[in-house]
Amino acid sequence: MNDLLIKLALASVVFFGVMNLAGLHAWVERKQSALIQDRIGANRASILGFTFLGLFHGIADAVKMFAKEDIIPDRADKVLHTIAPFFSVFFALVAFAAIPFGDRLIIGDRVIDLQVAKIDTALLYVFAMLSLGVYGMILAGFASRNNYAILGSLRASAQMISYEIALGVAIIGVIMVYGTLDLGDLVRAQGGLIWGWIPHWGIVVQPVAFFIFLTAALAETKRAPFDLPEGESEIIGYFVEYSGMKFGMFLLTDFIETVMVAALATTLFLGGWQVPYLYPDGFHFPWGSEFLVSNWVYVSLGISSFSIKVIAFCWVFMQIRWTLPRFRYDQLMSLGWKGLFPLAILNIIVTAFCVLWFTGDA
Amino acid sequence: MAVKVVRRHTATLWEKIYLPQILSGLKITSTHFFRNLFLHTAHLFGLFKDHRAAVTYQYPEELRPIFSRHRSRHRLTLRDDGTPRCVGCMLCETVCPAKCITIVPDEHPDPHVEKYPIRFDIDLGVCVYCGYCVEVCPEDAIRMDTGILDLAAYSREAMRLDIHELMDPELRKPLDDCNLDFPHECEIHGGEMKGDWEAVGVSTRAPAASDQSS
Prior knowledge:
The complex is a heterodimer. Chain A has helices at residues 2-36, 56-67, 78-94, 122-144, 147-178, 183-189, 202-205, 207-220, 244-269, 295-321, 329-359, and strands spanning 102-107, 110-114, 193-194, 198-199, 278-279, 282-284, 290-292. By secondary structure, chain A is mainly alpha-helical. Chain B is 27% helix and 13% strand.
């Protein structure tokens, strides 16, 4: 019973955090682009005269989305058309279950892993869920019975499949180095130090994989410069026939996926909840000094470290989204198949040699 | 035959690996981002107010600076006694390329002034803001320096400015009551003549005989 309550609490914490971060993206998108382009950004929505830097625009958006007419085209498949956006959001959300956002919390004699579902092959689970997200888009395009929607969903699925391969192959290098698919263990394995002062993080030992992962992950989120499935300004994608909150859910999926990919990048390459030089009993600095902390402080430092890294990644993704123009479709495909994929394979080979060289056995 | 060789730009290896180019792009956007973030935050505390963080003007609250020669909504300039400086010479109505000015002149009681307008209408829905009326006026009686740019109205009728609005740029239709003292054809009261010269202190006496003889 207690286990169930703990799991529920963890799930709600993750859900709360993710949904809020995704919702905030609507605000960040407006404000960050405004700051980049020397503008002010949406700042008019107010409650009782308070605008709070335009934060209420997200709420206004949600209210608008819910109040709008929900149109299902006559020729569309009503059932599939309705469940497609739910598919999209669902698979983006469940993937978070396997992301560890903190180290073991000790309450009394109970040890709680700060991870909703402790899965031995968590990485595979996350990737499976990310891939299933494509189904939402294909269904949306297919169920709309609109040629443009189908073309959009085909573009989307072709892009997702191409980049998922680069994504998957890129992280094999990480798996080889740390030797585990369990994300909790993977983060713990990143806790050590190289030469006594560099954190043993994924970005240090697998820099090439990091950049391949970042590029492919950006393509996974279907946002500029890889927003060919949508291309809101001219080509329009799989959600042409959607309106109201169903359209909003596709929009939300993009943001949730951005957070997802940021969380994954943090877990794989930036040491997840690891804080440099922080061990379960406290800080041990390379120059010899120590600063001991309690388990509560240790865990909360870990959680804040994880959150800060995720938010930083979200910032970087947003910055890239507002810096680069959209790829042409053939450029997109050739970058995926001729650029990232061979590079990722090369990375595996080099990593294999290095692992063999440094560990001596394998 | 002269041949002009056009060199096509071919990407160097440095450009082809994208990453440095992307980073240089990110550098530009990040510079703007952090500069504006700093300035916006400083503005909240009242610092660096003379550095604008955004080029945006918050329109209804904050107006763009208007240059002195900018042609905005018209106004009729006034004499010291509050009557219009206009002498009803019809030059502006004649020169107006859009034919948006309508003047009905009447005789002025002052012998040194020949005429004055009892009606002076400008249809802003037709006006092209060329400023010819201002240039042609011999009396400096019409100017376009009110700085009023928001001229939207709900009807064509409301776009027609009559003498009340032209003499007092603060006024906006619908007007409650006439505020002019000198005789004029008052649109507010159904085109009747309103006001008298006594109220503004202009003598209505016929010019003295000595004035005419001298």
